[in-house]
Design goal:
The chain has 2 helices and 5 strands. A hairpin with a 3-residue loop joins strand 2 and strand 3. It is globular and about 40 Å long. The two termini are 14 Å apart.
Length: 77
């Protein structure tokens, strides 16, 4: 399914281990990003911006995070 601005999305929990492997780095910025994303894997967000491989997702707690689209599931409402 194609992701569009305004879609409600959530993180595909079947891909958590893949995400962890791809974001394993000693770099503090990468570790902080990884921690933020993993803390919100159970939340539903709204796509605010979409690019080729990233979507900016706004979450109910106010965070806006760039998430690779390959890790997102569009929720049908």
């Amino acid at each position: 399914m194609v992701i569009k601005i305004g879609d409600k999305v959530t993180f595909d929990t079947d891909k958590i281990e893949q995400f962890k492997a791809e974001t394993s780095s000693p770099d503090k910025a990468v570790q902080d990003y990884r921690q933020l994303v993993l803390a919100g894997v159970d939340q539903v967000g709204i796509v605010k911006e979409i690019g080729y491989s990233l979507a900016t997702v706004e979450y109910p707690d106010g965070w806006e995070l760039p998430i690779p689209v390959k890790y997102l599931i569009v929720l049908v409402v």
